[in-house]
Amino acid sequence: MRLFLALDLPSSLSEGVAAAQALLHDAGGLRFTDPEQAHITLKFLGETPSDRVSAVEEAVESAIDAADVGPFDASVGGLGVFPSLDYIRVVWTGVDDGADEMIRLHEAIERETTAIGFDAEGHDFSPHVTLARMNDARGKDYVTRVVQHEDPTIGSFPVREVRLKKSELGPDGPEYETVSRFSL
């Protein structure tokens, strides 16, 4: 199964996510994420045999203890792109309040999951919610203008748990299911 660790945004913020996406709707070449499934990925694990799930769960519990992060509040807003405005693959909204706690969680999860054989991330961690993926460059100039001139506020939410999630790719995009929850 295809697994990742995430912080889910509450459904109360899906309207804010959709409003940020609406700023980009006139750009061609974008594939939008489902606002109801908005989340911040802490670690993508990839294809994982079901008999390794318990080892992952133990690693995450150890990571949360090591990170020493209790429940906190986070705020989401603004716009950005990965990897750069010259070559856009992902359009995202970022994290303001709560970013430091998310980075500590990510770093601890990274240590614990690589210790049990998962690949290390090949890039720096930047807490974000993916709004859209760019399939082709038709809308690049439009996206660039929006990212440079708009600063949407998505909202704030309490972070109380990390979730181990399963992703199943379907014809309408990925569907996510929570496998395990880990309280902070």
TrEMBL record:
It is an enzyme of class 3 (hydrolase). It comes from Haloferax marinisediminis. It catalyses: a 3'-end 2',3'-cyclophospho-ribonucleotide-RNA + H2O = a 3'-end 2'-phospho-ribonucleotide-RNA + H(+). Its EC number is 3.1.4.58. The gene is thpR. Belongs to the 2H phosphoesterase superfamily. ThpR family. InterPro entries: Cyclic_Pdiesterase, RNA_CPDase. The keyword Aminoacyl-tRNA synthetase does not apply. SUPFAM superfamilies: LigT-like (SSF55144). The active site is at H39 (proton donor), H128 (proton acceptor). Hydrolyzes RNA 2',3'-cyclic phosphodiester to an RNA 2'-phosphomonoester. This is RNA 2',3'-cyclic phosphodiesterase. GO terms for molecular function: 2',3'-cyclic-nucleotide 3'-phosphodiesterase activity; RNA 2',3'-cyclic 3'-phosphodiesterase activity. A motif (HXTX 1) lies at residues 39-42. It comes from the Archaea. A motif (HXTX 2) lies at residues 128-131. Keywords: Hydrolase. It holds the Pfam family 2_5_RNA_ligase2. The keyword Hydrolase applies.
